[in-house]
Amino acid sequence: MATPAMANVAGEWPLSSVAVIAAPVDVLGVNYYMPMRLSALADSPLPFQMEPIPGYPVTAFGWPVIPAALAELLVLLKDRYGGALPPVYITENGCSVADEVAADGSVDDQARIGYLDGHLRATRDAIEAGVADLARDRGDGILARAQLHAERVDA
């Protein structure tokens, strides 16, 4: 049953929105933090529930760290949309870590460094698998595109 908030999703878009919706997309921004494993959930306000993905490290939020899933997502986009896929930017990517500040004020950041290293390598794997719009050679051998890391720092 559609609720009033879902009315437009149910196909009641005003005609003025059709041109905006049908316009070509200049770029695709991918916000990637973790893969999700879902299972069906009967007789619930939500028709699904999140399930754990065992065998992988997790962030301080309990989210699984699976860099290969980022490469899989990017390759899936390339395979599904082919030439219609606009340039892809990874617009958000990051992890939560329970930082412990040492007496000298330093933080051993190996978990975050490992997360970034794994996800940058996964992005490279996707490029090598043909997701060419993740990188453009500027003519000097340097690949120019962005992968933005989201980080919240509490002062």
How would you explain this protein's 3D organization?
The protein is α+β, with helices and mostly antiparallel strands and 155 residues long. The chain has one domain. The chain is built from 3 helices and 4 strands; from the N terminus they run H-E-E-E-H-E-H. The chain has helices at 15-22, 67-81, 110-128, and strands spanning 28-31, 37-40, 48-51, 88-92. The strands form 2 sheets. A two-stranded parallel sheet has the order 1-4. The protein has a two-stranded antiparallel sheet with strand order 2-3. Helix 2 (67-81) runs parallel beside helix 3. The radius of gyration is 20 Å and the shape is extended. The model is unreliable at 1-6 and 140-144 (pLDDT under 50).
Q: Radius of gyration, Cα only, in angstroms?
A: 20 Å
Number of helices: 3
Number of DSSP strand runs: 4
* Class by alpha and beta content: alpha+beta
Chart the SSEs and their pairings.
Blueprint lengths: L14 H8 L5 E4 L5 E4 L7 E4 L15 H15 L6 E5 L17 H19 L27
Parallel strand pairs: 1-4
Antiparallel strand pairs: 2-3
Notable characteristics:
155 residues, alpha+beta, two-stranded parallel sheet, two-stranded antiparallel ribbon, 3 helices, 4 strands, extended
Summarize the structure.
By secondary structure, this protein is α+β, with helices and mostly antiparallel strands. The protein is 27% helix and 11% strand.
